[in-house]
Each structure stands twice: as structure tokens, then as C-alpha cells.
Design a protein that fits this description.
The structure is a homotetramer of 459-residue chains. With 459 residues, the first copy, chain A, is an alpha/beta fold. Helix content of chain A is 44%, strand content 17%.
Chain lengths: 459, 459, 459, 459
């Protein structure tokens, strides 16, 4: 067995309550990797606490691989010499997210997540892009050859900022939403054809789109085209929802989702939407998000930020229990693929999976350079996008609209251009029922609500 | 003076009550061109009547150039040997247009024109595209080297159909909307700077966009950048409208337009929208077309099809007067540039003006092959697009959305693909406040209302 | 183990003496595939004989998988219902190839192979393209959804013809030249680092280029970058050649090759040329092919067509021995990957390998649509090119020149355009020391030598 | 008449003996322009002398427009506030040019000009690119919005360097070679059709290509296609040459040229090559430049640098006569269009002419960003390329080869990359009969001959 035993990982947002612990156990369970993790966080105390948790996990009897955890004083310290950089930060606090998600309700705009698109996603991007600008500059200065893995939302715009600021960066964005739809197809095969327990990786999919608005243009199992099965499945369950085969990971769902949005999109557009319904609904006109009742009628619920605040308290309590030894680390593995990608990039075995990287032509009818989500081949020293082909008809049209909004958001955020920002904010599908004057007033309120996190150009 | 004395023009829609007469006088007044005009119309009687009017115009003492008018029995007869083909048809009748314009009012969608975009423009395209498919096939068979000038709406889709069916066609689409905005800039210079009577051609403009949704990225007069003046002008008049310098041509306006939409778009987006407000409003979300009162508050009015029906009666009455000699032909010239373009293409003098042709890169951030409106150089034997550059920020985003809708409309119309047609219909900005179920029902009603004009695939 | 047991293969050129037998044993040894092979050949007798050999192989005790062999009377019979089409033909006879290879010697142009580029490759293309035009039309008519595997040279132009005539074809071209260079790198690692017996597949390579002029922009073994080792290796052996690790397959080498050309190209250009030296030399200016002595000084020899004629006699004799039972079929496996690709396309396991397909952007600085050789992902129902990135500096320049020559050759062959054909013939690097008049006379002689195989337009 | 009376021109290379004087009289004769010319030259004395000549021209009774001449101490002084920048420098001295032109004769490579392509053009580029890098940086710093007109060779690479270093620069390159071919077509119409004295501007041409290797894909006079006439003309004169209608401007011809190369290229390739034969021959394989006798047999002569040195003495003597009043300035006008372009860019009248600017798609089958020569529309504040369409067959192939060589030359010169430089040097068509070892030795000798003018990276 090939191994890499002195891997150096810089973890930006290393004080994270959740993601970090999942990674710590994933790498502790991976027999081919070992090395050092440098935790960097603007909340240094959180990083210190996570160092202790990291040490506990690494020293735990269930760990098969041992890692050294350190706390870095600065980005420079964390990055210098790093082979990999992981970015998983919370841009500002849940107070700002409260504005993102709930302020638009005043003009009748409801969001199920509010961290990707819609007025909430836009505003989150406006404050996150300058943070990623700073991170990109630090990577250019201190770790220009490192592989950079982003988990932060808004995914596409975080990765886009890294490439805009430092075009030679080797960055990519990872997200598990696609896995959930692979699992749904696996559950479908059990339900429709009686084939149980197919691992999601055995569902072969051609992924096209942008993060949280990904589609399968092809899906097969052992050479069998799954589209006809999926059509029958949607005709059977679109009206009622399908509740089996749920991914009940806390990161993914506030309450259970019934896949009604996804199935409805298939019946309307003919391709398989491949993200959680809560995400998908936000990319469409407000057909599924007219109001909270509409959302519920489609089998999903809006995630209030109050729940996130409470959930954070729960995780902080869990952290205390972990530190005090009252609770054992969870060694079941997060299901994330990050550590496998590390191995592949180190030459320990090829891997093909979906990832967010610049469009080099893998989706020929989206703009070159836009951050798209498709399959890519991970190999020693390279991530090579796999050609996914052109997107179809109106799926392409819907996606292109968001891609252009993202490009304009990035430009507006980097240059503090209010005209571009406001017209982009108004071009979001969720805003399409809002009149200009209401929209402009909302824009100004939401900017004001996060002004402390914005560059001087906004003041 | 160079001249071309045996020009053969095939006029498809040669029974037209209006456009045809304007062209007849324009070419009668043009001293460098003469030849033959073959009138073809599915209403042969109308073509016969126009032949008589054409003869009267050609023999009138005010005519400086003499043309022979004939009536063609078939497309083949009209086209064989033609140097130029003019297409100016009414797709179906005003009854179908009544459905286009007014049926969507049932779901709260109001349209000021209803022949280009919106649900009305979409439905008009659905029946017009098969007609242009037939025309393109006839041109390929009988006049493959002729220059083809289209005046029919929806302009972009008519020209797109010609190129899709016969890629080597030498077709282009002409529209006077841009001229109106040049005239507005001329009137502005009189109002703001006291310079009177500037011919519109002396206002140099860089045109970008698609027909009826054209923009000026640059405008100058004698080297002076007009953008600062236009900003001051908009700040002065955006609230009240500007009523001077109107183009009151019947083809353009139902009632006067006050340019408030155009000025508002400048203040919002920063570029000069260059079409009539009635057209511009239809390309945007329903900010200006929420209801008839909203339109009026923005200084323009919706054109009811009942008015068009009455107007047709007036034009038929005028035809009778012309034929009986009660009324003299109008020799002031239409202001259209068609005849000048003919001359330029025959080598009688270069000309640079705006025109609708496939994107060969003149707008690099719109898809290649899409029918765009930019300046082009007309010379002997060629129309060479002039590079207009990328469109800006959200103007590009708004335009790209319509371009993709047009591509999907064309594909859906040629293949009778209901899924593609319906999802495209729903992707129009004017439909963005309509829920899916209402939209789908409207779609079906509107298809039914024009079923007689649609291919079998829709039945 | 997943299996596909009713695979239908149409084999065009099914009377082949060599390739066919290799395939027959490969598929007999592949436990996951079985079905029917329909042999079609214009030499029906040869197909009949191969049917017998096929049956003998399939019924042989060493066979693990059993296939039914039939002889097809027509392309229609062979193709109808086929899942896969294999094309492996000899365009015309070795008499025409004698002209290809040896006629140019009269003007001082020497060719080591003469079937890909150079004046010989050009002339071979001129007669082969119309044959592939006919094949493409038959596939469009009778097996439009089949996967089509080409082995015929000139590879790039054969595949290009298939796509030009039938753009929706699912064709790809396979060639083992890249494997030879992987084996060389394996031998290098033994020589330089003492690591023995690395399977060629474990040498990970990023392949870029066109068939027979392929390059590795990256090469690694277990994550180790092989470029520094290769540089040291070239510095050690470039002057003397390297004779270990030879691939002595008859299809590949006339006499042994010493890799001096390949190593010289690395020292000159900095990337790893990845085909046999005999092929590589033909793509360059006549640095390595000034005359037979020059070739020998570089460690390779020109393959005379007399040798091919003799070799054919040997293979015919072997066929007789096989048919009479005097000789046993060879069950060691050809080393070709064709049967593995079949399995992958049927969903029996993903596979990433190099293949000749249209450029969809996998090499962004070669023209879209050109037939390029890069890695691709073979999966159920799709071959998805893997992004290889732009080619470097003058490697791109050299390659682009051949790509343009190929595009012009294709166009000239399809339209019988002598001007385009002759100027393309003269643009080949091997012709760069020939004056126009000599070149034109040679062109005419070579056309005359194969006139029986050319379309009427050439007569 | 509109006028611009305070135009500020910075003239880099303002000590020029020839070009500068032509410009001075052109602008003195242009009634619509006046202002200031700042002469900057590394030979300050030459600039001082030209100031005096400029003053004499401006104050001459024949001058209709008056200009102030100053000598600038630095690029900064010259550039600050400039509306236009003219660059016309001699890179190094005629001693270096002697190496460019004559050193390659040792390996059998003869050049008629030696300043654009071939080994001489390559070496000239190697020392000129760093000079233009410095100029571009100064323009970025001191005159970022100025229009920059380059006259220096190698034209394409000088303009390419400006755009590479400062992508927002508003630079373009002017060359009169196309005019000469328009004049030839005018002379042809007199010879073949008896139409005398057609001004060259009335010959409408569609220009495609790169500087000194430009082609007409279309040519017409008053709507008449000139290709059939030109074919007859070539058939009549290709063997003997055509000596009427010569442009005997010293800048253009060493001895008269007979257009045999140009006519031969038409007969071989089917398009009209549109530059002097001395230039055209250098872009081709050495068909026309095998040796001096071959050149003479094609009706042109190689320009020895000794002649240039003598010619410089003549021009210095003329300068002395001008300064002393012994000779009057020549007021016939240079025939260059530079001053007209200035007027057009200032809004004094539109103009369409050929120019060297980055490819924005005007030639869709050459790389975007490459410096190409096509028509462009000059208007107030913009130069908009006019779509020229794809280049044909092998003309495109020949041109693309040089475009790639230029891109590689630029990259090699900016990075001092010997591998890239040497392989590019060897890829020039004129080098195609030279073996590698001879070529490499020549490369090293030529680099050594101009080492004083190269960046440190070459030492």
C-alpha cells in the first residue's frame, strides 16, 4: 500500500464546530495519509480547542493514522510549506445571516437556505468575497503551489474569487449535494426494481451545472440508463413525495425533504436535478417559495436562522463534552470525499468525482472561466475536468442566468460598484416579483445590516 | 453618378398596406436604382392592387426613377433571378395577434406591443417560424445568392430561422427603432446645448443588442462624448418625460411616448437603451407593465389590437383612394434605409448602419450565431459586421436571457417540442410573476387560438 | 461479475490478416463479453477464412468466452443491429502504398512509414477518405447508435471523415503507440532507479497531440514526477540510444528503434514525445529523414513496402497453417485495449485511456472539432474527453500545422479540389526542401499511381 | 469644417531621418488639425535637428496648419498629456541589421528585407520587444488613454508587445503595403479594361492576414468583382512581370518589383497577396529566395544593408541641406494615412482602412488576441475592427504558422527562454532547409552579434 506520511494541511477556519471534527476523523481513519494539520482561525480560542479535539481523535484507539495538530498565529504561519489548504469559514456571524435570510421576507421573498443565491446569497457573497480576496493573496504569497479545497458558501463565488485574485491557484470546491441524489437513485432502484443497497458511487452520473444547482444529464447503473426508471419513479411519487433513502445529516436538512421539487423539475424539464430541494428551489422563480406554506406543500421547510443559532449552541455544548471526555468522538466517517481527493492528488490512486472548478470547456455552453460543477479526474498533481457536454435547453438558460449573476456579483463586490450590485441583486429569479423601489430599499437595508464586514467602498 | 438600372426585387408580402407603399416611393425617389419589383402575396388580390399603386408611383411626375411592377404567381416565379428579396408579411391575421396581446391579460400580463417577446411574441414566433422555414427553402432553391431583407417581426427569430434552414443565406433584418433614439439625442442636443437640427446620422452610435432591445455603448457628436449630456438630460426629464423631437410615424407609436422608460433604464444601468419605450418595457421584468396604469404612469400606452384592426381599415380605405386617384401618393420618403442598403450592396457607395445579422463575434459575450443588432459595413457584395465589443454587466445578462429564449423558441418551433416550448414561454421576464399552473393553462389556450397556423406536430 | 453476453460486433475489413486474429483472441480471453462477430470484407474469401479462424479460436480450450462468427454479404447486413463497429481496412493494396512510400524518394523525400503524414500519408488519405465517406453513410443508415472503433491509418483523417459525414456518429480511434512510450518509461525506471516490472498502465500520463505525434505533458509514477528522471535518462542515452524494454510487436517496428529521436525531441523541446521514432520523425522537418543513412544514424530504419509485401506473404502462409491446424492460435493477448473499451462502454467498469476523438476543448489551443489524441473517460454509454490543457510553445505550433494540413486534406479529398490538395501536399514539413515544380510533378505522378481508387473528380 | 486645434502628439523616435519629415508635411497640409509635436529620441541631437526642420515646415508658406515642435527630455515629458503617441524607431543600428540580414547567408538563407520574419526578423524582434516593453510601461504610466500609432518593424510583434504589457492600451500599427496592391489593381484596370487613374481608395478590398503578409479575399471596383480580371491579368503577366503603376517610394523598394511573386501566389493559392513581393517572399518556404539569382529571376532583388547604410548617409546629407536652407521641404504628401486616422479618432469624419490591431474575431480562424491586419472603422474615440471572415485553406495555414511563431517569439523575448527562442527560430519557413546543428550555431552567432541590445537573461 502506497502511503504519504508527511502531508501538511493548513486549515483556514480551523476553529469550526462541525466540519473540522468530521475531517479530523476522516483523516484519522484513512490509512494512507498522515502528517500535520495547522489550525488557523480568527477565533484563536476555537482553534486551540479544536487542536485538543484533534489530538484526542488522533490518539484515540480507533484512529489508524496519526496526525499532529498545531495552532497557527497567522495565515503566513499556517500556509508556509503547506501541501493542502482547507477553507471552511463562517463569513461574519449568524446575525448577518439572519439579515440574509429574513430581511427579504419584508418584500415577500422567502428563502429556504439563503447562503447561495437569492438576496441572501447575494449579500453573503458581498461580504465573503473580500475575505476570500485576502485569503487568495495570502496563498499567492505563502503557498502558491498548494492544493486549496474550499467548503465555504457561496461555493461558486468563493472559488471564483480565489481564481480571479490568483489565476494560477490550484483551488477546487467540494460539496456533498450530488451524493444525496445518487443516494436517491439508489433508493429508487430498491423501490422500483428491488435492488437493495447499491453504494451511491456505483450510480454513474454525468454532472452538469453550478454548485447547489447541479443536474445529471446521464445516469446509469451497470450500464442501464436510469432515465426511464426515474421518469416512472417521478410519475409515481411526484405528487406525494418520496421519503425513503434520506440523508439525515444535520448539514443537509432542517427537516426531512421529500424530493417533490426535484421530481417536479424532472417532469417539467426532463433532466435530473441533483441537489437538495431546499437548494434547488432557491434557483428557480418563486414557484416553490412563494411563502412558507408553499414550501411546505412541496415537502420542504425554510431553515430559520434561529435554528442555526440554537444548533450552534448545541455544537458548542458538544465541544465542551468532547473536551471534557464526556462524549466520545464519532468515528463513523463523514461521507465527505475530501481526504480521498488528497490521496489522489498525491498519486495514491485515481479518482473521478464531481467538483467545483473553472470551466475549461467541460460545459461548452457556459462561459469559460465560470466556476462550474462537473466530474473531474483527480490524479497525481492534477485535477482534469471531464467533458460534460452542453447543458440542455432551459436548464442551460436557467443556469446561465445564475452564472452571469455570479460574475456580476464578483465584479461588483471587488470594485464596490453599487449600480452593478443593485442591478444584479434585482436580476435574481427570487426577486422577480419585487418592484424596483422595494428592491432598492431592501438592498440598502441589507447592506447596512452587514456594513461592518464590508470594505470601505460601501460606507 | 454610378447607377444600377436592372435591379430585380422580389417582394414577399407584396400586398402589404403600408410598408410596400413606403418602399415604392423610396425607390422612385432614389436616382441611382431602377428595375423590376415582383410582388408576391398569398392574398393575390392585394398584390394586384399594389401593382397598380406601384405603377402609379413609378409614373408619377415626382418619381425620378422608374420601376416595373409585376405580380408573381408563386415564390418560385418571384424569386428566380432576383437580386434582392424583401420579406414583410403579417403572420396570420390580427385575430391571432389579438390572442397574442390580450390573452395573457387573464393572468395579469400586459404587453405594449406583443410582437417580439413576452407571451405574445413567443406565440407569434411559433407560427411565424414555420412560414420562414418555407421561405428559406424557396430562397435556397430559387435565389440562393440574393440579398434578403426582412422587415417582419419577431425580427430576430425570423432572421434566425432563415439562417438555421439555409446557413449560406445572405439575409439581414432592418428596423428603424435605433433611428428614433438618434433623433432623441439630436433633440437633446438642441434642448441641452442649443444645437438645432442635427441630422440623426450625425449622431455616431455604437449599437449593441438584439432587435427592439438595442443599446448604445457609445454615442458622440463631432467627437464629443454624449454620455455626460445624456446623464444630465435624464436627471432633468426622467421624472416628467420628454416630449420634443418625437418620431410620430404611425409604424412606431400608438400614442406619443415620453422616453421615461429609456431614461429610467439609463439611470439604473448606465447605458442608453435605444428603442421605443413600448418595446423596451417588454424585455424587462414587469416593472413598467404591471398593468395599464403603470404603463401610463411611465408615459406610454398599450396598443390594443382593436386599434390595429381599425388602422387596417383606414389603410384599406386609403388604398381605395390611391387606386381611384382620390389621394396622391406621399412622396416625403419613409426614412427607412432599405434602398440605401441596396445601393451599397451593389457597389454604389459604402454605408455603415445598424442591422440584424448573425453574431460573428461583433458582440463577443453573446453566443456566436445569435441574431444581434450592431453596426455593419455595407459594401459591394458584403455586409461586414463592425466589432461592437462586449455588452456591459447586467445589460448583457438581460440580453443573454432573451437570446437564449430565442434560441430555445426557434428549436421548439422547428421540432414542435412542447416541453422546450413551455419552459421557454415560462422563462420570459414578463411571465416571471405567473405561477406555473396558470402559465401552462395560458400556453395551451394560446396554442389553441392559433392552431390553424401551426404545423401538425402541435395538433 | 457483471457480464454482457449478446454483444454484436460488425467488423469492416473482417478479412484482415493480423488485426482480426488479435481481436479474436482478445475477446475469447475476456470473461465478461460474448456475442456475435459479423465479418465484412470486400475480399469475401478472406472473410470466410477468418470466420473459420474465429470459430477455431472461439472453440479452442483456452477460450473462456464464446463468440459466433458470421460473414456478412453487405455493409447493411453487417451493420444492422450492431452494437459496435470495428474498422480495420487496407486502403487499396501495397502497390499503391509502394507509390506512397517510395515515389517521393525521386525528389529526395524519405519516409519511414508513409501512412500518416508526408506525401505518402497525404496520398493514402486521398484514397481512404472516400472509402470512409461511404462507411460513414452506411453507419448513419444502418447503425447510427453503434460505437465505431477505427484502427485504420491515417487515423486522424479516417476518424475526421466519419464525423464530417455523420456528425452524430459515436466513433473513436485506437492506437497503441502511446503504450510503447509508457513501456519505455517503465524500462527507464528500472534502468535509472532500479524499479523493475512496472506495468505500463501504472505510468500515469497526460496525453496531448494527434495520432502518431502524441506528447506527454505530464508523467508520474506513484505521485513522482518523471520529467527530471527522463531528462537525466535522455542525457545519458540520447547519443547512443536505449535498446532495453523494446516493444517488438511486428505491427510497430520494422527493425528495432533506439528512441534517439524521442530523446532528441525532449532535449530540444522539453516534452516527452510519445510514439515510435519512425512515426515521430515523419512529422518533423527532414532533420531525421534527410536520407536513409540519416535515419540509421538516429537509430531507426525506413520500412520498405517490399518488406510489407513479403510480410503479407508470411501472414497468408500463417493463415493457411492456422486453417489447416498446423499452427495453433496465439493466446497471449495483443496488448490492445479495444475489448476493454467495449466493456467500459457497456457499463462493466470505468476506464481512462488515450483515444482519438474530436476536440471538444480538451486541447484548448487546437481547433475545436479536430481529431486529437488525449485521455478520455470510458463509461456506460459515453466517452468523455479529459481536459489535457493547452499544448506548449512549439509543440503546439508543430501540431497545429499538421492539424490544419489534415483539415485541408479532408476538404480537398471530399471536394476533389486540386488547388487545395496540391498546396496542402506542399505544406507538409517533409516537403519543405522540395521546390514547387518538383513537388507539383510528384503530386501528379502520385495521383496517377492510385487513380483507380480515387473519385471521378480526379480523372 | 470641424477642426481640432490643440492636438498633442508625442513622437518616440522623433529624430528619425525620413518618416518624421513625411509626417511633418502631412500634418502641415491637413487643414483640420493643429497643435504640438513633442520629439523624443535617445539621440537627442537628432531630435533637436528635427525640431528645427519641423519649425521650418510649419512656418513654410505652403503649410496650411501650424504646429509647435518641442524636444522632450524623457519619455515622461513627451507622454504626459499626449493625445497621440507615434512610435517610429530604429531598433539598434544598421550594424545589428547587417547581422540580421546577412549572417544567415552562411547557411544558405537569403532575405530580401530581413526585418519582419525569417532569422533576421526573429533577431530584430528579440531586441525590439524589450524596447517596446519599456515604451508600453511608460505609456501605461504617463499616457494611458492616448492613441498609440506604431510604424516600427517587426510591426506585428511591436504592437503585440504593447498589448501584452499594457492590455488596455489603445495602440494600432500602420503600414502602406496594402496601398501598393490597391495601386496595382488600379493599374491593372487601366491595362486590362482601359479605365485610367482610379484612386487606390476606390478599389474596395477585404483585407486579411498579418502585416507584410496580407491578402485580399475580395476586391471590387464600383461593385465589379476584380478577381476574374486579376486572374486574366496574372495569366498575362505572371511569367514576365508587370512594371507599370509602380510605387517608387524609397521606403518600399530597393529596385523595382515586378509583382511576379504576387501573381504566382494567386495562381497557386487563388487569393490576392497584398504586400510587396520582397515581403511576401520571406513568409513562404524558400521558393523565391533560394539564392539571389532565384530572387532576381522572380523580378525582385535583395536589399543589402550596405545600401541602407549609404541611404542613411544620403538622408543625413539631405537633413543638412534642409537645415541650411539649401533644400526645400517636400510638400507632396507621403501618401501615409496616419494624419487622417488622427482626425477620424477625434471625431472629424469616419474612415475605414486597414490596420494592425488585436484579433477580436475579425479573422475567426486565427487566434484571438493575435495582431492581425484587417479593415477597421475609425470613429470618434474608437477603432472598431470590421469582420473579415475566416482565411482560406492554405493561406490560413501559412498565416497561422507565422502567428504562432510570433506568439512564441514574444514569449521567448519577454522571458529570455532559449529553448522556446531556438525552436521558434527553427520553425520559420525560411529556415526549413537548414539542419538543426547549423541552425543552432547560427542562432548563437546572431544572438552574440546583438548582445549589447538584449536583456541580461541572454548573457
Amino acid at each position: 500500500m502506497q502511503q504519504a506520511k508527511d502531508v501538511r494541511i493548513a486549515y483556514i477556519g480551523g476553529g469550526s464546530r462541525g466540519w473540522a471534527w468530521g475531517l479530523m476523523t476522516d483523516i484519522a481513519l484513512d490509512p494512507v495519509l498522515a502528517g500535520e494539520v495547522r489550525l488557523y482561525d480568527i477565533d484563536r480560542d476555537a482553534a486551540e480547542k479544536n487542536k485538543k479535539i484533534g489530538d484526542m481523535i488522533s490518539n484515540h484507539p480507533k484512529a489508524v493514522s496519526h496526525w499532529k495538530y498545531t495552532v497557527a498565529d497567522s495565515l503566513q504561519t499556517a500556509l508556509t510549506g503547506a501541501d493542502f489548504v482547507i477553507i471552511s469559514i463562517l463569513p461574519a456571524t449568524f446575525d448577518e445571516m439572519e439579515s440574509d435570510v429574513h430581511a427579504p421576507e419584508a418584500v415577500g421573498v422567502y428563502q429556504s437556505v439563503g447562503d447561495t443565491v437569492g438576496p441572501g446569497g447575494f449579500m453573503r457573497a458581498l461580504r465573503t468575497i473580500p475575505m476570500f480576496e485576502e485569503i487568495a493573496l495570502a496563498i499567492r504569497a505563502y503557498a502558491p503551489h498548494a492544493w486549496v479545497i474550499n467548503y465555504t458558501n457561496p461555493m461558486s463565488l468563493c472559488v471564483a474569487t480565489l481564481y480571479r485574485v490568483f489565476p494560477e491557484i490550484r483551488a477546487f470546491g467540494c460539496c456533498h449535494e450530488v451524493f444525496g441524489t445518487q443516494k436517491l437513485l439508489s433508493a429508487m432502484l430498491e423501490d422500483m426494481e428491488g435492488i437493495p443497497d447499491i453504494p451511491r458511487q456505483d450510480i454513474r452520473v454525468t454532472v452538469q451545472g453550478i454548485n447547489h444547482f447541479t443536474w445529471f444529464s446521464k445516469a446509469s447503473y451497470q450500464g442501464q440508463d436510469l432515465f426511464p426508471v426515474y421518469r416512472a419513479f417521478c410519475e409515481k411519487y411526484a405528487a406525494t413525495g418520496f421519503l425513503k433513502g434520506q440523508d439525515d445529516n444535520w448539514m443537509n436538512n432542517y427537516f426531512a425533504c421529500s424530493h417533490r421539487v426535484k421530481m417536479d423539475l424532472f417532469l417539467k424539464y426532463g433532466k435530473i436535478a441533483a441537489a437538495g430541494d431546499r437548494h434547488l428551489a432557491e434557483f428557480m422563480p418563486p414557484w416553490y417559495l412563494r411563502d412558507p406554506e408553499t414550501a411546505r406543500s412541496w415537502g420542504f421547510t425554510l431553515t430559520p436562522v434561529s435554528w442555526r443559532k440554537q444548533d450552534l449552541q448545541n455544537r458548542l455544548a458538544r465541544r465542551a463534552r468532547l473536551l471534557s471526555g464526556q462524549e466520545e468522538p464519532d468515528f463513523k466517517g463523514s461521507g465527505e470525499e475530501g481526504h480521498l481527493m488528497l490521496g489522489a492528488l498525491l498519486g495514491l490512486g485515481d479518482m473521478t468525482t464531481n467538483v467545483n472548478i473553472p470551466n475549461r470547456g467541460q460545459i461548452p455552453n457556459l462561459p469559460l472561466g465560470a466556476i462550474v460543477e462537473t466530474n473531474a479526474l483527480f490524479r497525481a498533481g492534477e485535477i482534469a475536468p471531464v467533458y460534460a457536454g452542453p447543458m440542455d435547453g432551459n436548464i442551460q438558460a436557467l443556469t446561465a442566468r445564475h452564472v452571469l449573476n455570479q460574475q456580476n456579483t464578483l465584479q461588483a463586490a471587488l470594485t464596490c460598484d453599487r449600480t452593478l450590485a443593485l442591478t444584479t441583486f434585482m436580476n435574481d429569479p427570487l426577486m422577480s416579483r419585487v418592484d424596483w423601489a422595494d428592491g432598492e430599499a431592501l438592498f440598502d437595508r441589507m447592506v447596512a445590516a452587514q456594513l461592518a464586514y464590508l470594505p470601505k467602498g460601501w460606507r
